[in-house]
Amino acid sequence: MQRISSLKSGWQLLKSSCEGAAKQVNTSPSTSRNYIIHSQAPTPFGLLFDIDGVLVRGRTPIPAAKQCFRNLVDRNGKYKVPVVFVTNAGNCMRQTKAEHLSHMLEVEVSPDQVMLSHSPLRMFTQFHKMCVLVSGQGPVEEVAHNLGFQDVVTIDMLREAYPLLDVVDHNRRPKGSIPPTKGLRPIDAVILFGEPIRWETNLQLIVDVLLTNGSPDNNWGTQYPHIPVLACNMDLLWMAEAKNPRFGHGMFLVCLESLYKKVTGYELKYEALIGKPSVVTYNYAELLIRQQAEKLGWTTPVKRLYAIGDNPMADIYGANLYNHYLQASHSTKAQKQAKSGGVAETVDSAPKMTSAELGGASSVYGAEEDLPEGCSSILVCTGVYSRDQQELPSDTSQTVTEQHIFHGHRDFRFDPSLMQPSFVVQDVKEAVELVFQQEGWPLE
């Protein structure tokens, strides 16, 4: 019960801080100028954009993206609808990503429109006072502190404190006499932000921490379960400038899971799996959409979300999973109302979502006000999924998978129907045009 109440308080803290930020932004002329008010909008909707493979390929903008965003803003650069960028990248700060997008798309993008894979960690307040080991690249220590973690240890700090742990690279081995071990406070949890640069170093030291209950100067033990592990970004593959996809953090997780099981015989367990396709990621993104709608001056709740992505396993699976969650929430509410009115209760035959699919924070979901009616998924062919490599089915009701091989995380169900997009289009420009046509909104 302590964990449940902690998560709930974290969610309320996050919600209140977002609402407070929204009120502040509404009074700030420097940020409110980015939006155009549609107070009488008949069917409010919001757009969730993936970035890699949808808007950019590495450092190169996809040509259709610039045209798309020229259509999404008016002649003064004001947005027409709520827009949030939902990416599984996590090796930078939101401000940095917002500046990068602003430059690439030639429209102003604010940090509160950007959601990185690790953003929902703000609500996991029960870990914020623990000593956490963080893995990834970029300013991971700064990112961790920004998310609320107070006692942070990086992989570099760990290898400097225990010089004999990292010995694969002979050039990094201690020269001459063996330096003394400095020692660190015991590590209480491990946070995996994204793929590191030196995989062998991170894999070795993370396993050391897990097998010594957070104290790498101790002997390996068999205590199980191990200390908590929270992982962000499960993408097996992602698309950069190369013709073929590149390994993502999901591949690093596969390596870590395999190593841990090979050494111990046990399955590596996650306290939380965050980032697309987990439900907690989309629930957080929907909260940011609400923020944007408030800045637009909308008084009617957003009714529909459209998630645009290039990865069937991450973007499409995640949007569809969140849509299932929304339908289940509305169904539960209707059943409670029917039961209170003396009407016979119907039985929901849909499979229950696992803790992993919910993001490890199932207790924060409940009677959320003004939930959207649904979330539609739109697959573009400019990234992981491409017409050049895979034949596009003429019937979009057919399941689209990545060569019919499940590229999802080990702890997620293999449900082909969740990788079936609501719509398939060539690029992001066509996607936005389709959405505005569906909603009956003028785009010009």
UniProtKB/TrEMBL annotation:
Lineage: superkingdom? Eukaryota
What does the UniProt keyword field contain?
Signal
Has keyword Repressor?
no
Any one biological process term the GO annotation gives: glycerophospholipid biosynthetic process
Q: Which GO terms describe its cellular component?
A: mitochondrion
User: Known InterPro entries for this protein?
Assistant: CDP-alcohol_PTase-I, HAD-like_sf, HAD-SF_hydro_IIA, HAD-SF_hydro_IIA_CECR5, HAD_sf
The entry sums up its family as follows: Belongs to the HAD-like hydrolase superfamily.
Protein name stated in the entry: Haloacid dehalogenase-like hydrolase domain-containing 5
The gene name on file is hdhd5
